[in-house]
Amino acid sequence: MNKDPKKILFFYPENPLQLHQGNNARALALLKYFKEREFEVDFVGEQKEGISFSELESLKNLGFVNNCWLLPDTKSGGLKYLFQVSLPKKMSKIPKAFDRRKLGHQQVFNDILKGNNYDFVIISYSCWIPLVLNNPHLKDSQIIVDTHDLLTSQFKSYKSFELGSFFSAEMQLLDAMDRVWAISIEEKYLFEQFLSSKVDLVPHIQQKHEFHVEKSIDILYVASDNEHNCIGARWFFDHVYPMLSNDLKITVVGKVGDFIPDGDQIKKIRYVEDLTEVYAQARVVICPMFSGTGLKIKVVEALSHGLPVVCNERGVDGLINKTRNGCLVTNSPTKFSGFMDKLLNDIDFYKEHSSLAHSFFDEQFSKEQVYSKLDSIFEIE
Q1: DSSP one-letter string for 307-370
Q2: What is the pLDDT of residues 149-172, one digit of tens each?
Q3: Whole-prediction pTM value?
Q4: pLDDT tens for residues 336-381?
Q5: CA 7 to CA 43: how far, in whole Å?
């Protein structure tokens, strides 16, 4: 038992217990690490659909957090008030998209800080940094931002998007932090070119799994309904699926299933509380993606089960090694279907890539590896 446990305020705007999204899985994995290291953790979220006080009580009941707060729902103010909290004068040129606070958020957050002393305050996503920017109530807390993604690329569809101003804004906000966590090796490299803040590579924490059960799923596809996944899903089912054998059993887990066609051999599951059993029944995992940033959590989940992954080039974003890692990568529909056929019909080829998946996962993403990195950050011997 720690005599003097570290105290953390962890801000994450979603519900970590809803594991249909990779970002939620990452947040929950961090909470599990804090629990195992006996940290005292308070949680702050944002009140909206999918997250409420009653739902967050489960975090307390599971022993992940001591206290929970939700920044208030401000729908009554209308969307025009969404970005009305101004940044300090020295940051006045930063686009409003990088200030996700709504009216009332800052006051509630400040009240939490006033009533507590934290060793670390961890903010998820750079657009929420304004909560702590030049905040006089932080006392001696070390401020960490877990970036999840390079958000500049996520804003490129905005009408007001200008690459220079948006990228500069994100770098200014990140540089005001004590430490910056990157989930992918590419983003760590990018951040280090522009920031004086300490940049840490903190991969997703994933438990290794080894199951020996009958495989009832030939192809598994796990994805949410964000724009990047929907584009990839349409490409796969328009161009790759017609080339595959008609008797292959495909299971699609997640809201992306709303955007793909029905089929006799296509099973859609909108939400699964525990994906472990689904992965255990799968033979091959696919990740069709042509855009997006950060690490693909679904790819890491597949590798943790020793499952080969067939993906496009964006599917291996964030991985330190782009080859011999259990992933077969191509942007060609013909080669994509060919990789799947060979994995499903060539036992030796399958075993080779399953072994590569296990080895690469052990080297880069195992719980022991990532815990060691976090222990170093939090100065735990």
Answers
A1: --EEE-GGGGTT-S-SSSSSEEE-S-HHHHHHHHHHHHH-HHHHHHHHHHHHHHHHHHTBHHHH
A2: 999 988 888 888 899 999 999 999
A3: 0.85
A4: 999 999 999 999 999 999 999 999 999 888 899 899 999 999 999 7
A5: 11
CATH fold of 7-205+367-377 reads Rossmann fold (3.40.50)
- Please state, as a whole number, how many other Cβ atoms lie within 10 Å of the Cβ of residue 336: 25
Domain boundaries, the chain: 7-205+367-377, 217-364
Q: What is the three-state SS of 187-200?
A: HHHHHHHHCCCEEE
DSSP string, 219-254: EEEE--SSHHHHHHHHHIIIIIGGGS-TT--EEEES
Amino acid (1-letter code) at residue 38:
E
Q: Which of 357, 365, 205, 233 is nearest to 291 (CA)?
A: 233
Q: Do domains 7-205+367-377 and 217-364 have the same CATH topology?
A: yes
> What is the number of other CB atoms lying within 10 angstroms of the CB of residue 37?
16
338 CB contacts (<8 Å, ≥6 apart)?
Answer: none
Query: Could you tell me the CATH superfamily of domain 217-364?
Result: Glycogen Phosphorylase B; (3.40.50.2000)
Strand-pairing partners, residue 329, are 311
